[in-house]
Amino acid sequence: MIAASGFNPVRTGRNCRDSINMSKSTINDVARLAGVSIKTVSRVVNREAGVRDATREKVEKAIAELNYWPNQSARDLAASKAHLICLVYDDPSAYRLPSAGYIIRLQEGVLRVCRSHGYELLIHPCNYRDRQVGDELKVLIHRARPAGVVLAAPLSNFPKIVKAISATGTPFVRLSPGQKLTGERVVASNDRAFAAEMTCYLASLGHRRIAFITGHPKHKAVGHRFDGYRDGLKRSGLEFSERLVMAGDNSFGSGEAAAMTLLQRKQRPTAVFAANDDMAVGVLRVASRLGIPVPEQLSVAGCDDITLAEQVHPALTTIRQPFSTMAERASLMLVKGTEESEKPNGTVVVPGTLKIRESTGPAP
Amino acid sequence: MIAASGFNPVRTGRNCRDSINMSKSTINDVARLAGVSIKTVSRVVNREAGVRDATREKVEKAIAELNYWPNQSARDLAASKAHLICLVYDDPSAYRLPSAGYIIRLQEGVLRVCRSHGYELLIHPCNYRDRQVGDELKVLIHRARPAGVVLAAPLSNFPKIVKAISATGTPFVRLSPGQKLTGERVVASNDRAFAAEMTCYLASLGHRRIAFITGHPKHKAVGHRFDGYRDGLKRSGLEFSERLVMAGDNSFGSGEAAAMTLLQRKQRPTAVFAANDDMAVGVLRVASRLGIPVPEQLSVAGCDDITLAEQVHPALTTIRQPFSTMAERASLMLVKGTEESEKPNGTVVVPGTLKIRESTGPAP
DNA sequence: GTAGCGGTTGACAACGCTGTCAGGTTCATT
DNA sequence: AATGAACCTGACAGCGTTGTCAACCGCTAC
Question: Of residues A239 and B98, which shows the higher confidence score?
Fold first, then answer.
């Protein structure tokens, strides 16, 4: 298939005509009206090269006149692959976590690519704690035959899930996986680097006792942030101390719990950096409850820039994760990978950006 | 098509066997292995009646052995309709509104139906301010040929959008439309009723000056809540006063603005009921800034039960909108409508439920 | 013994498109 | 004027299902 990077079936420039004419005309009708063969219409529709301008115009006119749109099922059948990208992520309704924003951003990213390349997006939330999840994904892929699969974190870290998808032979890209495998496509953000950056930022404000709340142990990418925290400490000439590290599990509640412990010490930290925003907001909540003014007496920073981060008071300093861009890049690899020559493996890193808001300030 | 209400292609009870065997076997292979005709395999796969048990078992065994899954494109082509439900909603990235939770819930609802009926979900956020949106939807429908379209609010209120979908002839269901048209399918929640209920609840706490912040004028369903507010006032024997009504636009910011005005009056209201949660949270924020304790000096209530409602401090009293259930019911109408005899129009009402949390209390 | 009738099965033609390949045109080159 | 080469175009065979319809089987009813 030649398929120029263009995508959508050609339509003459003018807007869709009144399509009261919903007569689902076929390529045959167009061919007849234009006085050419089916194949030629197909060529025009797919923007294949090698059609004389005059012919193309005739065909385009006929297409517009009949309000023709190719039948996707037939196309996919003939080309033996569906114009579909499948986005697989952790089911938000399984937890009660506010991961909605994360998912929406992922979807946005994939959708951008879909729109520009004539693909459709199939979404598939699933629950990794479900025993059957591997089979479920295989079935999905067998049924839908998508051009590729984008596997979002934290699912991208579960071997059984990766294996299941891999077994189908369908191209896939992992997002923010904890560890990389060889010969595999990955899009990640630089968690370690930006966590270090945040730590340095806090240190530069004069903080000396910077606590860290770790993420869910299964979520590897979040784990890298801990490494980044240590990097940042070292780079700022600060001592690492176990006492300043609390274990969290990415949830709001675990952030609260950690803060309860940290903030009630006689010598409490002057800054708390949480591995994600949910926990950071938990810290904020506890601080408010304990009457500790933020940022005057305590600086709080998170990671991810969830919607809530902006709405909470004081607005949370955090790191904006480029989720949507990551998903976009991943989808692009998939789309290109099938249209052009199969690309080899590759890792794309999309950088996150510091969002400094109100919850951080000079050390007291 | 006979198609029992069952859906997924039959698989023998046991789990998928090791499917290293990803050989994309076709119905032909199965037929050969089982020693029957293609058509018989098709019957078994589709759970059609009239296959002898012994034959069915032979076929199921062959299916399991070859790890066969029907090709969706081929199916859709032959049956001339795709097993797809299309969910169309307002693009959250177009605004900067935190509508992610809303969308995720809608998706959840549709997905439940998809899963149980062998459909897939196609999502299509779009921007109603875009001139081309009608054509865009027509193209989508022409291309994907979904079994039906679920049109979410606030999009369900725009005539040009409804018309465009209607013109394609594809069955569709509107969610929470502002006004109903005849001969049309609708799923709505009882906005007016529950807004009245909330108002009565506040009145029952002793509040006499209950303010209301209206929603975006274009969002009709939210408009009904204003009517409900007046109903509630009347039912509680309270006088309606223009002075207690502020115009909002569904955004956090507009909630803040309204609160700034309301709460700085010498005789401020003792309760504020906002037409949605975003605005209610805005009120909470302003109250905190002005040092007005909630709920001791001021009760605040919202509508929708967005994720944030639970996380904010104090947790927001609100009304849980049954978005996910609404989407589910809508999808069900679509799926049934195409599988069974075309159902006539109908309106389904799914009730919302009061969620009383910390932000409301007895009048001071 | 035979017509008739459910119950069961298979042959075959779509479904609407793409890929392959051969055939036809056009045009510059010898 | 003949020879290619480059360019266009169309015939045709799938792609893997489902729908239609005819055929067959075994049995009951006459």
Answer: A239
> Is B364 within a domain?
no
Domain termination site, one of B72, B92, B122: B72
From A97, which residue of chain B is nearest by alpha-carbon distance? Answer: B307
Assess whether A88 and A183 both reside in one domain: yes
CB of A6 closer than 8 Å to CB of A47: yes
Q: What is the pLDDT of residues A270-290, one digit of tens each?
A: 999 999 998 999 999 899 889
Backbone angles phi, psi at A214, to 5 degrees: -80, 165
Are B198 and B307 found together in one domain? yes
Q: Identify whether A230 is part of a domain.
A: yes
Number of domains in chain B: 3
Residues of A in contact with B108 (CB under 8 A): 92-93, 125
In a domain, A361, yes or no: no
Structure tokens of A267?
């010598």
Angle between helices A220-235 and A191-204 (to 10 degrees): 40
Range(s) of the domain holding residue B209 = 191-321
What's CA B69's distance to the chain center, in Å?
A: 31
Pair of tokens at residue A287: 């601080």
Nearest to B22 among A72, A82, A167 (CB): A167
Q: How far is A229 from chain B (nearest CA, A)?
A: 27
Q: How far is CA A275 from CA A355, B143, B328, B333, in A?
A: 15, 43, 35, 44
Are B195 and B315 found together in one domain?
yes
CB A93 within 8 A of CB B108: yes
Distance B52 CA to D26 C1' (A): 14
Residues A169 and A89 in one domain: yes
Q: Are residues B247 and B344 in the same domain?
A: no
**Residues of A in Cβ contact (< 8 Å) with B311:** 98, 252, 281, 308
pLDDT single digits (tens) A86-109: 999 988 665 555 577 788 889 999
Same domain, B282 and B221: yes
Q: Identify the pLDDT of residue A15.
A: 34
For B156-168, what is each residue's pLDDT tens digit? 888 888 888 888 8
At A307-329, the pLDDT tens digits run 778 878 899 999 988 888 999 99
Cβ–Cβ gap A15/B135 under 8 Å: yes
The CATH number given to whatever domain includes residue A18 is 1.10.260.40
What whole-number distance in Å separates Cα of residue B344 and Cα of residue B84? Answer: 21
> Which of the two residues, A85 and B217, has the higher pLDDT score?
A85
Does the CB of B71 sit below 7 A from strand D?
yes
Residues A151 and A188 sit within 8 Å (Cβ to Cβ):
no
Q: Report CA(B52)–C1'(C2) in Å, whole number.
A: 27
B66 touches strand D (CB under 7 A): no
Same domain, A154 and A200: no
Same domain, A308 and A297: yes
Cβ within 8 Å, pair A69-B143: yes
Assign residue A112 the CATH number of its domain.
3.40.50.2300
Q: Which two tokens stand for residue B187?
A: 């799923």
Quick check: is B361 in a domain? no
Cβ-based neighbour number of residue B265 at 10 Å? 11
d(CA B72, CA B118): 10
Distance CA B150, CA B123 (A): 10
Asked if B145's CB is within 8 angstroms of A72's CB, the reply is: yes
- Interface contact flag, A71 B77, Cβ < 8 Å: yes
